[in-house]
Backbone:
């Protein structure tokens, strides 16, 4: 199964369903509006401020060029509940690495949506042939860290005072990682060859 045949995909979450689909540049303005509704603390782990139109425009361009593969999750009314990005850079020293970014709106939290978004992004990483996935967040995002750890991610580094919020306060960032290549090898050894 390929990305184009896997999506749109409906997944069950607490108190309803979410529809997952690949993000395209056509929804740039809608995703910008979504980002601007998120609590600022939820955005600290991102390398850039996606509430800025020029940053969102750059994200859309990277989707178009294939550097980023993103998913959108909507509720049944069409409201955005969350999004992901699997970010790669084939020109870096780490072309085998993908960075996973997951954002969930307050209306989507504690409903199992984050778990679905991580699982789907993991499958995207397998489809892209990546060997390792990393994710970053602030250490106080204990719920998100627990979900990532349940999915096989492990803490790899703690960066002290790594980001500064809008109030000028410094925050630590924890980096988690997952050995995608090892997982894929185990699945193949068990005879499971069509994961995506």
Residues:
């Amino acid at each position: 199964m390929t990305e184009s045949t896997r999506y749109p995909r409906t997944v069950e979450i607490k108190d309803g369903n979410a529809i997952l689909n690949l993000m395209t540049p056509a929804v740039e303005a809608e995703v910008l509006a979504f980002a601007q509704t998120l609590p600022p603390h939820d955005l600290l782990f991102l390398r850039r401020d996606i509430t800025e139109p020029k940053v969102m425009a750059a994200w859309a361009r990277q989707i178009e060029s294939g550097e980023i593969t993103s998913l959108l999750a909507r509720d049944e009314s069409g409201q955005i509940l969350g999004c992901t990005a699997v970010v790669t850079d084939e020109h870096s020293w780490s072309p085998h690495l993908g960075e996973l970014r997951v954002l969930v709106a307050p209306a989507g939290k504690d409903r199992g949506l984050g778990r679905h978004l991580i699982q789907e992004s993991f499958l995207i990483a397998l489809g892209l042939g990546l060997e390792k996935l990393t994710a970053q967040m602030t250490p106080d995002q204990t719920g998100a860290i627990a979900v990532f750890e349940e999915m096989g991610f492990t803490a790899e580094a703690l960066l002290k005072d790594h980001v500064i919020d809008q109030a000028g306060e410094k925050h630590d960032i924890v980096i988690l990682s997952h050995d995608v290549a090892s997982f894929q090898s185990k699945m193949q050894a068990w005879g499971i060859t069509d994961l995506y």
About this structure: Helices lie at 3-6, 28-36, 53-65, 113-127, 142-150, 180-189.
